[in-house]
User: Which sequence fits this backbone?
């Protein structure tokens, strides 16, 4: 599809999308992504930056006595604006929310908080909820692809593209017309922000980016419903998002096979609780260790062969001093998978600074790999070279890391990840987790979405 | 002052600034700017985009029953977050809030809403209020200068630099330590946004930018008070604001003569209610008309000789269809001053589409001028060439438009402008305006800043 006004085409698509237009397998994947997101949202409970944002929200007016949306980490009620803000912060903390490889964009953490908060406030149906979620995914992913690699070098795409994705979701929940949806895009896009500078300091901005993308997107759509006008070419215009924040933007990506290609199904689940840029190498290391029956003690050194984006994002951290920083440290991630076979929230929390892990970390280097870089971001190939203590040079490779569309998680694996996260943070007991899961798998057929935890109590 | 860590130097300055450090003439100018801002904030009452933002704020949680900050357009109480948001939207609507020429930045509209809301909530003193205001001006202006002309081509500096200015103001009001202030800068800067794309459509984003700069800056400082960490080099870092949004950033500008040069006093009052880029030519036209005793009917055509920034910002609007768009239309502004000697809110509202104005508009063209462009943005020179019906070619010139530091407004002129704006919007009666003015001139010596309107009632 080509058009001289892609912002309008994309907004019209988002405003017009109905549940019945969405193929069944896409609906099913959306439900899986919802359950996966819910686990991440619960997993953020107790995290200092998340609790800070929750405290601010409460002081700023969240607890105004008439909110119908739930803040999942503490089960309080708030207005949709603040519930979306806090749930978005929470669901990006443990670094296990989903990601679209090609867009380098985390859709769930900005889309679901908005959809859930507005659905709860309006007692909307599961069908409308799913339509709003799919609209958000399709919009956000295409904007991430459009903004390109030059954008992602400095900007956190989940913050920038995420603001418009949140607006698309909110706009669909609010039933905006195509014209209003375009206004919502304009008001959202002009607020798009999020810089990578915080990574160097292990600062708390990542959760702030998702919190504000969700909140600002919701605000943009609410304003549009009230007639507030936005720029009509905020994405592709001469002084729009790409003009300001990209040097390789490709407008054709914005409308790529709308309604035919379902980008939502290309989204990867994050199996390891680490920055996605570490996953391909982690799985490649697991593969070579399994193939040759290696123990961590057998390994002299590891070379992770990566794309430039991995070096850009991971390069700044050399000696991690916090769990969050460790999740962006290739050496720590490879050490954890070498010792535990998995780098989950518990492995990070308990093991990132352990002596054997620290020692293994020092044996890992990253090098740029031409093939991996060429394939990226469409494919995230994992390649490692392992030198063993007994002098062998072995190579490991995965073409699709675990959780990617061609190597996706089963519903059982998603439920297991959910239980691990709820248990890790203490946001829900085992029994509560079971009730939450039961209800979440059935979200698409809910007639009136309400409290998640009240369902639990009634059960 | 040179430093390898300008973000820190600037944050430390802002956190450490005390009232007694500020020269008396700077305090006096700050009070003048406050009164000028208050008029603009009242002037926004009833404006559709402003009322939309106020409605959203109220639905999102502003009216939570314990707010101590005032929303000036409707005299309701709200939390500081929402009061700052709405007052910032309101004070940027009539296009008469102040501007710093060199930074192309409107400080008042993002600084005062934050300072006033937090002062009211804490019943702070006028001395602390002034210190917070001066901190915000000094920080925001230097960041605007730092980001440079390349930034302003696409980004609305008042939205971007304004977010950090608001954080500096809020941080000073909250008594942040230098380390916390640097955190606040980090959380604010990573949220910096605002694109010029909306101008083409005459969309409502300009007030959204100031609303969110104020609110996000206040949030950033509040989070910092709670230990929320921000990037320590958000301004100059490799993935910071300049890296993402400027190609000609000059870090030396960030710390230019801190504590010696008071950039606040370089701020211009806006005499005409139009985009600042039109003012030099408007005053030059008034000058040539006065010098030669010309009436509008004597004029065949006018060539406004302008800097590139004026063409970039004003160029998009050819036929204004709204008052707001008219304020960004050189032809309309020159027509209004030609007929009325002044382009104020009333002249725009009643006259922008009048037949003689529309006819005059068609006689105006803008051309790039080498000398004007070289001087910009340090000096905003106005040059026009007028061709008269009787065949003369006359030139008009002003080296400093009315309201600029060397041609500043008197307190009487500021008060008159205040009364015009309050009357225009109906936000305050004549009597209320008198009471508000009396109190506002004395803000620096207030012991406990409270409600502005209650003072009015008690009087």
Assistant:
């Amino acid at each position: 599809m080509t058009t001289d006004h892609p912002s309008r085409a994309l907004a019209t698509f988002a405003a017009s999308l109905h549940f019945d237009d969405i193929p069944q397998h896409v609906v099913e994947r959306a439900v899986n992504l919802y359950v996966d997101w819910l686990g991440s949202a619960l997993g953020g409970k107790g995290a200092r930056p998340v609790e800070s944002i929750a405290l601010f929200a409460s002081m700023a007016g969240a607890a105004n006595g008439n909110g119908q949306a739930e803040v999942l980490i503490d089960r309080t009620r708030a207005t949709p604006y603040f519930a979306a803000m806090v749930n978005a912060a929470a669901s990006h903390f443990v670094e296990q929310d989903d990601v679209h490889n090609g867009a380098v964009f985390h859709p769930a953490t900005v889309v679901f908080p908005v959809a859930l908060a507005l659905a709860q406030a309006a007692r909307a149906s599961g069908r409308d909820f799913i339509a709003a979620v799919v609209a958000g995914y399709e919009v956000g992913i295409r904007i991430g692809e459009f903004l390109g690699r030059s954008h992602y070098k400095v900007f956190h795409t989940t913050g920038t593209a995420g603001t418009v994705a949140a607006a698309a979701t909110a706009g669909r929940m609010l039933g905006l017309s195509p014209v209003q949806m375009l206004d919502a895009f304009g008001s959202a896009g002009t607020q798009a922000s999020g810089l990578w500078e915080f990574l160097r300091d292990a600062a708390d901005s990542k959760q702030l980016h998702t919190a504000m993308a969700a909140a600002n997107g919701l605000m943009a759509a609410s304003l549009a419903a009230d007639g507030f006008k936005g720029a009509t070419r905020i994405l592709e215009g001469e002084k729009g998002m790409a003009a300001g924040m990209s040097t390789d933007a490709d407008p054709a990506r914005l409308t790529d096979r709308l309604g035919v290609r379902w980008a939502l199904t290309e989204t990867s689940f994050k199996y390891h609780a680490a920055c996605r840029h570490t996953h391909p190498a982690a799985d490649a290391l697991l593969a070579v260790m399994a193939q040759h029956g290696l123990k961590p003690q057998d390994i002299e050194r590891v070379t992770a062969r990566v794309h430039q984006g991995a070096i850009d994002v991971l390069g700044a951290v050399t000696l991690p001093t916090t769990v969050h920083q460790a999740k962006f440290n290739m050496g720590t991630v490879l050490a954890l998978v070498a010792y535990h076979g998995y780098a989950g929230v518990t492995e990070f929390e308990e093991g990132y600074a352990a002596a054997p892990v620290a020692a293994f970390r020092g044996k890992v280097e990253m090098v740029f790999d031409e093939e991996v870089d060429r394939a990226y971001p469409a494919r995230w190939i994992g390649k490692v070279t392992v030198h063993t203590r007994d002098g062998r040079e072995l190579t490991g490779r995965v073409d699709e890391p675990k959780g990617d569309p061609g190597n996706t998680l089963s519903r059982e694996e998603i439920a297991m990840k959910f239980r691990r996260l709820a248990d890790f943070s203490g946001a829900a007991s085992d029994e509560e987790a079971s009730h939450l899961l039961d209800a979440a798998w059935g979200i698409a057929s809910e007639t009136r979405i309400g409290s998640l935890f009240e369902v639990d109590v009634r059960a």
